[in-house]
């Protein structure tokens, strides 16, 4: 059932007045507008929730990105780009589903209006047929009356009509038949005249109904054009939303491949970094053995707070310990503690010692190693990593004192932002450095 009939509750066979047709058209237009404008309300609310989740996810991704230490920039960026795309997918899917729903409903409304228009045009044709038939009957009656009138006008209607019947009859039977025939003609003409008069009155009503139907047809044609425009717009938006979703899916697939490639490349670089770390730890163990052989007692035992802070203000962002890497999904040891600070922040020696070396390494960036000798029977070495380029203030073999400036905070190497990666080695093995400076 079309829009107009759903509003009025009437079938087309029951003819409303002209005022009724106008009311039907206005009501149909109102229902059409409300139906289309109100369709996506619930879906929009759901999409708004997804939009908020998306924004929260993107914010979280950015925060996670700042903590993705220990990987190359290329690997980190590939991971973050993929995560951003994943965050976009639910919203894109909601947009596609909503657009598809709007299109389906718009198409359905367009089809209903088209059905109403077809029915109205059928009613118009029926009324036109009735009017034409009545007019034809009226013409026939008028023609019959005209023929009789012409015959009558040729004679004296007061004197000669009955005389003609008598003179023309050859017998009483013939005269009786003539009178009967004349009476039948008169009755037939009277009936034709009555029917013609009724048809004329009925046609006046039919003309009013026809005008109302034509007005309704014009309104439905306008509704149909509007419905078609809405449906075509909705279809275009649905196609665009679907294309956007497919584009995101394709981008996700491409980013997944890129991430896998970056993982493989990083694994090769990480092998080199691990080999370098193994050499460093081996050298530190040899140093520890040599120092402990010379100073077996090593002075007072280790105690919390024996060392100064490497920065004037400490903000711990990533502690020492084992954790599953968010990208590589493997268990790894974070060999130091990360303290966030603006690039260029001064770095100070935490205790007296001798600079072992200053150098650049792909993972640590610019790195300074300071040997503090044997303390409490253990060889202690501190390292200061990710220093800014050109930020070394000491060199290998130089003696430093507690609190002496040795460099500046940077973000070199596998770093996501300005910070200091601070390490302590005991007998060549990394330990939690925080107790030393607490």
Short description:
The chain is an alpha+beta fold.
What's the structural blueprint in terms of helices and strands?
Blueprint (H helix, E strand, L loop, with lengths): L2 H6 L9 H21 L2 H25 L7 H81 L6 H9 L3 H123 L21 E3 L2 E4 L6 E4 L2 E4 L5 E3 L4 E9 L3 E11 L2 E10 L11 E2 L4 E4 L10 E8 L2 E3 L2 H4 L1
Helix pairs in contact: 2-6, 3-4, 4-6
Count of beta strands:
12
N→C terminal distance: 80 Å
Instruction: Give the percentage of residues in beta strands.
Output: 5-15%
What's the helix count?
7
Tertiary shape:
rod-shaped
Q: Mean pLDDT score, rounded?
A: 78
Major sheet = 8 strands, antiparallel
Using the CA coordinates, give the radius of gyration.
50 Å
Describe it for me?
The protein is of the alpha+beta class and 438 residues long. The protein folds into 2 domains: 3-261, no CATH class; 298-437, Glucose Permease (Domain IIA) (Distorted Sandwich), CATH 2.70.70. It has 7 helices and 12 strands. Strands 1, 4, 6, 7, 8, 9, 11 and 12 form an 8-stranded antiparallel sheet that branches. A two-stranded antiparallel ribbon has the order 2-3. Strands 5-10 form a two-stranded antiparallel sheet. The longest helix has 123 residues, at 172-294. Mean pLDDT is 78; it is low at 1-43 and 158-167.
């Amino acid at each position: 059932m079309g829009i107009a009939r759903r509003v009025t509750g009437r079938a087309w066979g029951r003819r409303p007045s002209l005022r009724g047709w106008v009311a039907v058209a206005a009501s149909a237009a109102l229902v059409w507008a409300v139906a289309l404008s109100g369709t996506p309300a619930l879906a929009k609310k759901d999409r708004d929730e997804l939009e908020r989740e998306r924004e929260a996810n993107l914010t979280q991704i950015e925060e996670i990105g700042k903590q993705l230490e220990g990987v190359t920039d290329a690997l980190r960026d590939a991971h973050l780009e993929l995560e951003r795309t994943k965050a976009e997918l639910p919203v894109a899917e909601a947009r596609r589903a909503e657009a598809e729903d709007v299109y389906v409903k718009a198409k359905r409304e367009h089809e209903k209006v088209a059905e109403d228009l077809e029915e109205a045009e059928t009613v118009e044709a029926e009324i036109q047929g009735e009017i034409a038939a009545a007019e034809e009957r009226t013409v026939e009656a008028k023609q019959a009356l005209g023929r009789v009138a012409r015959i009558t006008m040729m004679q004296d209607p007061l004197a000669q009509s009955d005389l003609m019947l008598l003179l023309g009859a050859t017998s009483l039977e013939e005269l009786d038949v003539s009178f009967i025939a004349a009476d039948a003609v008169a009755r037939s003409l009277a009936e034709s005249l009555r029917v013609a008069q009724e048809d004329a009155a009925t046609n006046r009503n039919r003309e009013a109904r026809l005008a109302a139907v034509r007005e309704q047809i014009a309104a439905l044609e306008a509704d149909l054009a509007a419905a078609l425009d809405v449906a075509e717009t909705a279809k275009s938006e649905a196609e665009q939303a679907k294309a956007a979703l497919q584009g995101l899916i394709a981008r996700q697939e491409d980013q997944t491949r890129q991430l896998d490639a970056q993982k493989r490349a990083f694994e090769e670089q990480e092998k080199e970094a691990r080999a370098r770390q193994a050499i460093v730890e081996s050298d530190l163990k040899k140093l520890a053995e040599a120092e402990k052989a010379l100073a077996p007692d090593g002075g007072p035992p280790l105690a919390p707070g024996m060392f100064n802070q490497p920065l004037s203000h400490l903000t711990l962002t990533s502690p020492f310990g084992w954790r599953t890497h968010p990208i590589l999904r493997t268990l790894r040891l974070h060999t130091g503690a990360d303290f966030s600070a603006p690039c260029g922040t001064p770095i100070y020696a935490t205790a007296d010692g001798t600079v072992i070396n200053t150098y650049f390494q792909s993972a640590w960036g610019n790195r300074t190693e300071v040997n503090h000798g044997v303390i409490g029977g253990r060889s202690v070495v501190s390292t200061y990593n990710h220093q800014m380029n050109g930020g070394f203030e000491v060199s290998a073999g130089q003696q430093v004192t507690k609190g002496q400036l040795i460099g500046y905070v940077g973000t070199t190497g596998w770093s996501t932002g300005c910070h200091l990666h601070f390490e302590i080695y005991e007998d060549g093995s990394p330990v939690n450095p925080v107790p030393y400076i607490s």
